[in-house]
Amino acid sequence: MLKFILIIFFVSYAKISIANIINKIDIEGNLRLDDNTIFSYLNINSNTVIPKSDLNILFKDLFATELFSEIKFKLEDSKLTIIVKENPIINRIALEGNKRLEDEDIFPEISLKIRDVFTKNKIQNNLQRILALYRASGRYAAIVEPKVIYLKQNRVDIVFEITEGPLSKIDSIKFLGNRYYSDSRLKREITTSEARWWKILTAGGKYDPDLLNFDKENLKKFYADQGFVDAEVSLAVGEISNKKDKFYITFVVNEGDRYKFGNVNVDIEIKNYNKSDILKSINIKKNNWYSATRVDENITKLTESLIDSGSPFINIIPKLDRKKNNIIDVKFIIKPGQKKYINKIIISGNTRTLDKVIRRTIRLAEGDPYNRNLINRSRTLVTNLGHFSYADIEVSDNFEQQNTVDLNVKVKEQSTGSLVLGGGFSSAVGATANIGISENNLLGKSQKLRLNLIAGQRENRADFSFTEPFFLDRSSSLTTNLFTTVQEFPESNYDNERDGAEASISYNVGEFGSQSLGYRVESRNIIAEDAAAASIKSISGESVLSVFTFGNAIDKTNNRIDPKDGWAASNRLSFAGLGGDKRYFKTTFRGSIYNEIWNEKAVAALSGQIGYILGLSQNIDISDRFYLGGNSFVGFQNAGLGPRDKDTDDSLGGNIYYTITPQLKFGLGLPKELGIRGRLFSTAGTLTRIDTNTSNYYDDGSIRLTAGAGVLWQSPFGPIRLDYTIPILKETHDKTETFSFNVGSLF
After folding, report:
1. Rounded Cα distance, 264 and 278, in Å
2. Residues 245, 171 contacting (CB under 8 angstroms)
3. Counting CB atoms within 10 angstroms of each CB, which of 98, 422, 575, 732 has the fewest?
4. Which residues form the domain of 660?
5. Residue 207, Cα to own-chain centre: how many angstroms?
6. pLDDT at res. 47
7. 527: domain CATH number?
8. Spatial CB neighbours of 217, under 8 Å, sequence gap ≥ 6
9. Final residue of a domain: which of 58, 86, 114?
10. Burial class (CB in 10 A: 0-12, 13-18, 19+), 173
């Protein structure tokens, strides 16, 4: 009886098990894909035995391929029939209605490609990508509608119909919670700006959420530098109008209390250093407003000083101690840092520029002590090469060798060749036009090759130059130049034709200084007009100049193009006489100093020049003398002061000159993005003494003095300068001008 019951149980269990098994699978509806391909996605074949409980897994696997628009399962006993409808293939992709963004701007950014399998998800994802492109360009009102055109043979054309809409500009920027600084003052500290009519040629006024977050940090840093240690910018939000054509920006600020510097001290945990000497090098003054940037600058300065004195491994930590009456005492804790050395310097991303060009700008080598400041300096020098749109140096620990790091120098190359078209106009020299062709990274060696052509009312010039920036694999630059030029001097009634060649070597002296050595040889032909003075006619004709030059320069300004702080000085010595027809000694000196005043609202500057030329057993040629006026002495015409012929009124130049110019540059209350500033200036100086066999000329050597006001505009077309000047001290034979202007530079 028991055996009978067991037999019945096993037969029943076998029937139940067979009922839950699929041992035959067929596929229907597939046209483009064969059965074996579909089975491969399922990792089975048509005769695979699988439990019916796996049907859900099979369906998910097929659906994940995105090859089918419809999938049906038909189950009959132990046989499964899979009925599919294939997704169509993309035959063509088109864009319609796009004008602001070209096809070549959009197509590389979308993932759809011809002959891809079409799915609705892909269409939606790429629609959002196109909308993101338009939002990045400032068009938040853009609408993108996809149209799908079904064709024969299960193919489709996809058309994105685009309505670009207006630019979504920033209409207003408001600040909430600011008590000490006005909205207009805070706007000067952020990059985001309001849309205004004068920004038609710039990107100003465009909404950028990433830039908004960056501006939050800018504002916080600004407040921290003005003594507001606890200042927070809790919110920076942009709200769009109903028409999606305007943004309203709001910053929420909590200024907190304002603090001043109190006592400054140092705590030295390394040997052989005098505390008083270190304190003297700190330029933080008690009772000045607290500045986080000033603290950081002193940390950098102390670090560099201690490293240079032989302590490569140090760590400086500022400790802030708040006192009563909003005073902050600062203590710089100087302690030994972890000893680390450079293991490898790895350069990547330079597809054209040679490794050695980059490596020789890096201030560290394998085996050197790790130095954060030298790494930062190296990053700056690599960027200054001008060959890369991106340059960075990343530090990574080397786990194979203890206490070592690798420097990963990553660069992204950019175009280094250029065709330059330029032009300008000034009241001093008239109109000029310039065409230049240059290559600044020849053969990937950082060599420079330039051809420059200038045509103007006063000068026509062509020159060809080549520069090797690392001559003999050293930190020195060799420049050679061939030139031909014709200069007109209408104020003196003569022309000067010059053809020649020159070569110079320049090299760095320290971190901020440089020296140069050069030699130039040129043939000259002075052509005097009939109306020229007798002294000019007497020196007309051809001659040869052979001159050696030596120069020194040091630049400690914060910006070479538009300095606001620091100083710069240079001098140049020239000696002619070893060969050629001319023999003289010539020297010039220039110096300037800059300082921001009135809470950095204005820049005070003082600049001066002096020059002297001495003939060696011969008179100085008119073409070698100095001239003042125009840009060199505003308020006088070009070559408008100094020795002048009594009969013809021709300017004769001079052998000695000096000028000194105090100047004040300041904002005019206009938005900073306009780039318009005012200036007040005055110039004092003179030009005197000439070598000539006649005495029929004016030359008294008296001091000339002018004063004036002007406007400086960094326009989209280049710098523009307008000046109104009053001559205070002048001579009757001088040529003055009240209004002067300069327009244009390379563009």
Report:
1. 11
2. no
3. 732
4. 458-743
5. 21
6. 72
7. 2.40.160.50
8. none
9. 86
10. buried
Residues 147 and 129 in one domain: yes
**Strands 566-576 and 584-597, bridge-based pairing:** antiparallel
Residue 462 and residue 555 in one domain: yes
Q: Which residue has the tokens 């013809």?
A: 648
427 SS3 class: coil
- Confidence band, pLDDT 50/70/90 cuts, at residue 716: low
Q: Does pLDDT of 164 surpass 80?
A: yes
Who wins on pLDDT, 742 or 124? 124
Q: How far apart are CA 591 and CA 250, in angstroms?
A: 46
Does residue 239 lie within any of the structural domains? yes
CB-CB contact of 212 with 235 (8 Å): no
| CA 428, chain centre distance (Å) | 32
CA angle, 671 then 243 then 101, to 5°: 75
User: Which whole-number Å values give the CA distances from 446 to 43, 376, 407, in the listed order?
Assistant: 57, 21, 22
Residue with tokens 């001088």: 734
Sign of CA dihedral 454, 459, 460, 466: negative
First vs last C-alpha separation in the chain = 108
Tell me whether residue 167 is exposed, middle or buried, using C-beta atoms within 10 angstroms of its C-beta: 0 to 12, 13 to 18, 19 or more: middle
Say what the pLDDT of residue 426 is.
Answer: 53
Domain-embedded: residue 434: no
For the chain, the domain total comes to 6
Q: Number of C-alpha atoms within 13 angstroms, CB side, residue 224?
A: 14
Which tokens in the block code for residue 629?
Answer: 């006026």
**Cα–Cα distance for residue pair 491/649, rounded to 1 Å:** 8
Token reading at 465: 């130059």
Buried b (16+ CB within 10 A) or exposed e, 317-338: eeeeeeeeeebbebebebeebe
CB-based contacts of 194, cutoff 8 Å, min separation 6:
170, 171, 172, 173, 187, 205, 671
The Cα 529–Cα 645 span in angstroms is: 14
**Which position has the token pair 């043979």?**
153
Q: Are 213 and 135 in contact (CB under 8 A)?
A: no
Whether residue 462 is predicted with pLDDT greater than 70 in this model: the reply is: yes
Read off the CATH number of the domain in which 36 is found: 3.10.20.310
What amino acid is encoded at 313 in this protein? F
pLDDT digits (tens, 9 = 90+) for 463-499: 999 999 888 777 788 999 999 998 888 888 888 899 9
| 469 and 603 housed in the same domain | yes
Same domain, 549 and 697: yes
| Rounded distance between C-alpha atoms, residue 510 and residue 659, angstroms | 29
Q: Residue 370's closest CA among 417, 348, 338, 401?
A: 338
Task: Say whether both 331 and 356 belong to one domain.
Answer: no
Cβ atoms 38, 84 nearer than 8 A: yes
pLDDT in tens, 630-687: 889 999 988 899 999 998 888 999 999 999 999 999 988 776 667 789 999 999 999 9
| Average pLDDT value for residue range 340-346 | 90
Which of 196, 226, 254 represents a domain boundary (last residue)? 254
Q: Do 622 and 485 sit in the same domain of this protein?
A: yes
Q: How far is CA 716 from CA 167, 169, 194, 434, in A?
A: 21, 20, 18, 18
Token code pair at residue 320? 């802030």
Does 408 map to a domain? Answer: yes
Which has more confidence, 140 or 174? Answer: 174
Distance separating alpha carbons of residues 308 and 305, to the nearest angstrom: 5
Whether residues 400 and 289 fall in one domain: no
Closest CA to 454 of 481, 483, 432: 432
Of residues 18 and 254, more confidently modeled: 254
Q: Do 683 and 719 belong together in one domain?
A: yes
Distance in angstroms (rounded) separating the CA atoms of residues 583 and 586: 10
pLDDT > 70: percent of the chain: 92
Assess whether pLDDT exceeds 60 at residue 212: yes
Has residue 550 got a pLDDT over 80? yes
- Averaged confidence pLDDT in the chain: 85
For residue 453, is it within any domain? no
**If you average pLDDT over residues 251-257, what whole number do you get?**
93
